[in-house]
Amino acid sequence: MMKIIAKGRPASSGMVVGKVRIVHDVKGLSNVKDGEILVVNSSNPAWTIGMMKASGLISEYGGIICHAAIVAREIGIPCVVGVKDATSNFQDGQKIKIDGDEGIIYEE
Amino acid sequence: MVMRELSMKNDDLIKRYVDAASFVLYNTDNEKYPIRVGRIAHMFTKEYFKEFIDDLNSLKDLGYSYSMIGGLFENPTIISRMSHHILKGAKQAGFSLDEQKKLVLELISIISHMKQLNYFNEDGKNILLKDKEINELLDRIKLIKATNESSKIIHKLCGMMWAYSETPYFVAHDIAIEEHGIYNLSIGRMIIRDLINLRPTELWSECEDFPYESMRIVCVYDDKYNAWFDFYGNLYSKDNPVSSLISYYIEGDCKEIDIEKVDKILDISSKIISSIISKVELMSDKEIAKKYADIFWYRKRPLCDEIGRTWRPRKKIYKLIDKGEIKPEIIKNVSQKEIKEKIGLT
């Protein structure tokens, strides 16, 4: 049984396994590699280009119609929002699984 | 002037409006970009409401029907989303409960002329086109069969265009985007994303670099694709749109756009977004509030253009903002029931 490491509000459906990339500001988006799972505090439209490379998205703040949630649904990647302290509790390169339908994040 | 005869009683319409609006407002969070509108809009919503009513009455005096007034706006979601702020302004102006209800019924009547079927998207559909218009569209365009690769590109475009609509217009991105459907057709389930007002150079000069004034992205999904809209035109789905796409078509300024050109659109959109946001990050909260006022007044521009008035806010509005106080950031968990009570029409 997989270990649940965080929970939040499901914002865009689907499941994905990938490596975490924590991004604190727009400049950090240049470090995002294709297929990584983006972990952010919150986002604004300037982050969208970084979201294009991501396979999944976790945000500390926001609800189901925040920028991150809507863009994730448009581009078709799983997204969980309202994940408290995500940018502190996850680490770059950590392998996780997002369940965007249930809002659960598992350790892989 | 006779309001369009509506099939439901007025109280029921008001209740449905409150239910639909409160759902969206409940799920709207304290997004920081660029500032939560609730912290600043109180400084000018009363004046905004007064001018909106004045514009509306001027057009009615000229013989404009609600249908004609609706026709001045390119999309109904602009009215849906504007209604919240207009109602706030009415309350600030001391409108009685009956007057507030009459105002909302007027706005619903305008919306009713811009949409087919359900005014509040209670069935999850945002239907704008009549059957004849759908047939004309499908006769005119040539849908392209989607592959997994092209579907990813199309949906990246959809995501980027949403972000692009948010950037120059902040919370009023209804000025630039209307997503509508789900049109259940023999060929699949169609969702149309209409992008308009994509070069608001009066607000942001860098928007001049965007290659189109308008765009349309037509997506036809398989019959299993389950998606729905709320009253404010936000799209939700439990299914993956990328794997569900059967065919698509894109156009800019009514001319077909080849999928090979999408990368360029993504690139230029991203540059304009970054440029605007870089400017916004250097603005004080009061400067952002003034920009918000410009955007609010830009939202009702179609009325002013028709009357022959300037659309821009008067100097008084900026003075009100200069003198006004920005509300502090308070993150409070408010229930949908509390939001309904705050809307206060029922």
Question: Quick one: how many beta strands of chain B?
Answer: 8
Low-pLDDT segments, ≥5 res of chain A:
none
- Gyration radius of chain B, rounded: 20 Å
For the terminal residues of chain B, how far apart are their CA atoms?
Answer: 25 Å
Task: Give me the side-by-side strand order of the main sheet of chain A.
Answer: 1-8-7-3-4-5-6-2
Q: Overall 3D geometry of chain A?
A: globular
Instruction: Give a short account of the largest sheet of chain B.
Output: 6 strands, antiparallel
Helix content of chain B: 40-55%
Shape annotation of chain B: globular
Q: Counting H and I runs of at least 4 residues, what is the number of helices of chain B? A: 13
Average pLDDT metric of chain A: 94
- The low-pLDDT segments of chain B are none
Structural class call of chain A reads alpha/beta
Can you write the helix and strand succession of chain B as a string? HHHHHHEHEEEEEHEEHHHHH
Describe this structure in words.
The complex is a heterodimer of chains A (108) and B (346). Chain A has 108 residues and is of the alpha/beta class. Chain A has 3 helices and 8 strands, in the order E-E-E-E-H-E-H-E-H-E-E. An 8-stranded mixed sheet of chain A has the order 1-8-7-3-4-5-6-2, covered by helices on one side. The longest helix of chain A has 9 residues, at 67-75. The mean pLDDT of chain A is 94. With 346 residues, chain B is α+β, with helices and mostly antiparallel strands. Chain B contains 13 helices and 8 strands. Chain B has helices spanning 10-27, 45-61, 66-72, 77-92, 97-112, 131-140, 148-169, 241-244, 262-281, 285-299, 301-307, 315-323, 336-343, and strands at 144-145, 177-185, 188-195, 215-221, 227-229, 235-237, 245-252, 255-256. In chain B, strands 1, 2, 3, 4, 7 and 8 form a 6-stranded antiparallel sheet that branches. In chain B, strands 5-6 form a two-stranded antiparallel sheet. In chain B, strand 7 (245-252) and strand 8 form a beta hairpin. In chain B, helix 1 (10-27) packs across helix 13 (336-343). Classes of the chains: A alpha/beta (108), B alpha+beta (346). The A-B interface holds A 13-14, 26, 42, 44-46, 48-49, 51-52, 61-67, 70-76, 101 and B 24, 27-34, 152, 155-156, 158-160, 162-164, 166-167, 230, 232, 234-243, 266, 270, 273-274, 277.
